[in-house]
Amino acid sequence: MYTVFAGGVGASRFLQGLCQAVDPAAVTVISNTGDDVEMFGLHVSPDTDIVIYALAGAVNPDTGWGLRGDTFAVVDQLQKFGYERWFNLGDRDLAMAIHRTRQMREGRPMHEVVGGLAAAWGLTCKVLPMANETVRTMIAGPEGEIAFQEYMVRLRTEVDVRSIRFDGVEKAKPAPGVLEAIGGAEAVFIAPSNPFVSIGPILAVPGMREALANTRATRVAVSPIIAGQVVKGPAAKMMTSLGYEVSALGVARIYQGLVDLFVLDVEDRELAPAVEALGMRTLVTDTMMTSMERKRELAEDILNAIGTGR
Ligand code: GDP
Questions:
Q1: Axis crossing angle, helix 91-105 with helix 110-120, rounded to the nearest 10
Q2: Ligand 1: residue whose CA is nearest its atom 21
Q3: pLDDT of residue 308
Q4: Could you give the CA distance from residue 76 to residue 270 in angstroms, rounded to a whole number?
Q5: What is the CA radius of gyration of the chain?
Q6: What is the pLDDT of residue 139?
């Protein structure tokens, strides 16, 4: 069994490769729900849906989120009634939010709802939310605290991030199946996701770090920073404003003590000794997942390095 701590776009690319390299039925995704947002009265789970759409082969390849070929007539029309238009929720994407919201209002726990959505998209891997309770990633900037999607989408990350807080996390518990997926795995992967706002909320759920500390699985992290830059998103900006070195080594420092193997891009090969000095093994390989083949090869390289896989 292979378990993956996952955010959105970076994680979904990694998962596409892993699900080709191994039987997807052996893969469990632990999805970040700290990004979730209430929009137009609907519960939207951006990271979870990116992963489901990507694994179903339906994600919009141009953006990495949303559905390929989706249209935006509903959000356009909602402006007539005074709704703000900053959050792009496609017309077909809305179906997911409607169904999720209805089921949650009927009292179904999040892990069952997410499991049902993934199954409806034909996935055979297991997709679990990190927790069933509400956790909200809050970004503190110069003008106070805002919810993550406001920072990310409405303000286009143009805010100096002073600190990050996961509202509600102290009352959250790993969703049913999460601890078992960590404890019973051969390998636990921290996907190349944003360490602060994608992996951070998952690790902040009480019990999660202990589960990672106690598992016999090989724990692997893939750097989302290549040659001192992000492939996309605000991770580098956040590293700078939160006082971390913007490099794969900076990421390795964040995960120090949590992982056994740290995967660096070939462009960062000279950082390997410094990462190893933090007490982890390294694998240097091409981590830029530009094609389906590269995604699969990255997963295979890692599986070979840890001596597991098909
Ligand atoms: P988000 O929630 O949609 O922002 O997605 P994630 O947190 O899962 O992923 C964002 C991170 O993925 C960014 O820091 C990117 O640098 C990283 N990323 C995206 N594509 C790739 C890739 O092909 N290779 C690597 N190594 N990192 C990637």
A1: 140
A2: 10
A3: 72
A4: 49
A5: 18
A6: 97
CA of 224 to the centre of ligand 1 (A): 5
| Ligand 1 atom closest to the CA of 47, numbered from 1 | 2
* Strand, helix or coil for residue 169: helix
CA of 63 to the centre of ligand 1 (A): 12
pLDDT of residue 310: 37
**Residue minimizing CA distance to atom 27 of ligand 1:** 224
Most informative mutation of 230, 237, 255, 296 for ligand 1 (most atoms within 8 A of CB) = 230
Could you give the 3-state DSSP secondary structure of residue 187? strand
Asked if 189 and 30 touch (Cβ cutoff 8 Å), the reply is no
Pair 175, 207: CB distance under 8 Å: no
The finding on whether 8 has its CB within 6 A of some atom of ligand 1 is: yes
pTM over 0.70: yes
Question: Alpha helix (H) ranges present in the chain?
Answer: 9-21, 46-55, 73-78, 91-105, 110-120, 148-149, 178-183, 200-204, 208-214, 235-241, 248-254, 272-276, 292-306
Question: Which token pair is 243?
Answer: 């006082």
Quote the ligand 1 centre to 152 CA distance (angstroms).
14
* Distance of CA 193 from the midpoint of ligand 1 (Å): 5
Domains of the chain: 2-67+110-134+171-305 (3.40.50.10680)
| Residue 202 tokens, joined | 């998952």
Residue corresponding to tokens 């390294």: 282
The per-residue DSSP string of 86-98 comes to -S---HHHHHHHH
Splitting the chain (310 residues) into consecutive groups of 10 residues, what average pLDDT does each group show?
A: 98 98 98 96 97 98 95 96 92 97 98 98 98 98 93 92 97 98 98 98 98 97 97 95 96 97 98 98 98 98 82
Q: Is the CB–ligand 1 distance for residue 56 below 6 Å?
A: no
Rama region for 143: left / alpha / beta (φ>0; ψ in -120 to 50; rest)? alpha
Cβ–ligand 1 distance for 11 under 6 Å, the answer yes
